[in-house]
Amino acid sequence: MKTATSLSLALPVLLLAAGTAFAEIKTVINHNDNEHASAEFKFADVPPPAKSDAGAQAKVSIIAGSRDQNGGEISRLTDGRVPTEADEPEANFFFAQGVDGGRLRFDFGQVIEVKQVNTYSWHPDTRAPQVYELYASDGTADGFKAEPDADTDPAKAGWKLVTKVAARSGGGQYGVSISDTAGLIGKYRYLLFVCAATETADPFGNTFYSEIDVIAGDSTNTTDTASAVAYVPFVTNSVDGKCKITIDFSKAPELKEWAEQKLAPVLAEWYPKLTDMLASDGYTAPTEFSVRLAPGNGVAATGGTRVTANSDWLKRELKREAIGALLHEEVHVIQQYGRARRNNPNATRAPGWLTEAIPDYIRWFLYEPDSHGADLVWIKRQRNFVPKYDTAYRPGANFLNWASEKYDKKLVSKLNAAIRSGKYSEEIWKESTGKTADELGADWKAEILKEIAPSPVQ
Predict the structure, then answer these.
(1) Among 147, 246, 264, 287, which is most buried by a count of CB atoms within 10 Å?
(2) Looking at the domain 5-227, which fold is it?
(3) How far apart (Å, rounded) are the C-alpha atoms in residues 191 and 137?
(4) Which ranges in 278-348 belong to alpha helices (H)?
(5) Burial class (CB in 10 A: 0-12, 13-18, 19+), 111
(6) CATH 1.20.58 fits domain 233-336
(7) According to the model, what pLDDT value does residue 390 have?
(8) This model's pTM is above 0.70
(9) pLDDT band at 218 (very low <50, low <70, confident <90, very high)
(10) Where along the chain do its domains lie?
(11) Between the CA of residue 113 and those of 19, 40, 146, what are the distances in Å?
(12) Alpha helix (H) ranges present in 278-426?
C-alpha cells in the first residue's frame, strides 16, 4: 500500500533578521501522492490552508510572465479556497503554457512581521511540484527595484533571498512551509516568488498553485489555522467503487441534505450503468468527477469532469427536474467527445445535436421514462411542434429512441463510440438501420405528424 510522503528540509540559508542574531530558515515539504491527496489538504507537518491570513490583505501582482487563460485569476492564490479535485484549472493560478514560470509579488502596503509562508499545489502529474525562489524586502535598500523583471537578479535589486524550494516527487498534492528557527522570517513589506517550470519536456510544466498563505507574527495576522479549511465537500463513490464523486454545496448549504441523500445515491448508482452503455474500445471513463452547486445562470454545464449547477434553479425543481438534469450532466462527464480532437486535430467533430440528444435520451427514456419528458405525451403538450430529427435535447432524444426501438437497440452506443473516437459518419446510420439519418428523420417526422394531427371533426 502506498503511503503519503513527507520530507522536511532545513536549508542552510542564513539571514540577519531585523533586531535578531543570525537565524536559520527552515523549509518543510510535504507530499501527498495521488492516492492520498484530498480536498482537505491535510499534511503530516505542513499546516493546512488558512481561512484568512496576511496574504489575503496583500496586493498580488504578476511582475514577469503571464497568467494561463485556462486557469483562475491571481486572486485564487489568496482567497482562502482550495480545489476540490486534482485537475481543476480554474481553481488554481498557473503561468501560461510554454514559458518557464514567472514572478509574483506580494505587497502588504506596509512593513509587517512575516512569521511563516506556506504554498500549496495540486495536480495529478507534472504541474503538482513546486519550484521557486522566495525573496523579501522592506523596500528601503539602496537601488531597490519594486518590480524586478525576468532579466533582473533580485539579489542585486534590493531583495534578500529567503530560500529556494525544489519540491519534485511526482504528481499529487504539495504543501511547503517556510519559517525561521528564531520565530520570525523578518519584517518586510514585499515578498517576491520567482517561479520556475517543473519540467520542459512539454509545454505543461507550470505549477497549479492552489493557495499562498503569509502568516504574520503580530496582530496583523488573522489566520485561524485550527479551522484551516473553510469547507469540506461531500464525497461518495459509484456503486462499483470505480469513480469518486465530489459534491460541493458550500455556496448552497441549504441543499446539503438533498445533495447527500437524494442526488448522490442516483449519481453513484447510474455511473457504472452509463459507463457500460457508453463504452468504446480503448476508453476508460473518468475515475472521479465533481459537482458544484452555486447560484448562477441557466441550469447546469459540464467542462471535462467538472459539473456546475445553478442552485437557484435546482431549489425550484427539487421534486421535478433537478436530479434528472444532473444525470444528464453525468452523461457528459462520461462522453468526453473532445478527446478525439485533442489527440488528432483531423478527427471528425461531434455533431452538436447528438452531443446533447444522447444525454437526454438516456435521461428521459431510460432513467425517468414515467415522467414523460420527451415522449409523445410531451410532444403533444407543445404548441406548434415541428419535428426536426437533428435537434438537440428532447426532440433529438425522441428521434434516437424511435430509431433504437424500430431498428437497433445498440444504436446510441454505436454512435457514442464513433463520436468519441473521431470517426462519426453517416455510414453508421446506414449500417445499423439500412437508411441514412435524413431518411430516418423523414420517416420519424411523418409518424410524429400523424400522431399529433387533430382528430377529424365528426
Answers:
(1) 246
(2) Jelly Rolls (2.60.120)
(3) 7
(4) 311-316, 322-335, 339-343
(5) middle
(6) no
(7) 97
(8) no
(9) low
(10) 5-227, 233-336, 338-458
(11) 12, 28, 19
(12) 311-316, 322-335, 339-343, 352-361, 376-381, 393-406, 411-421
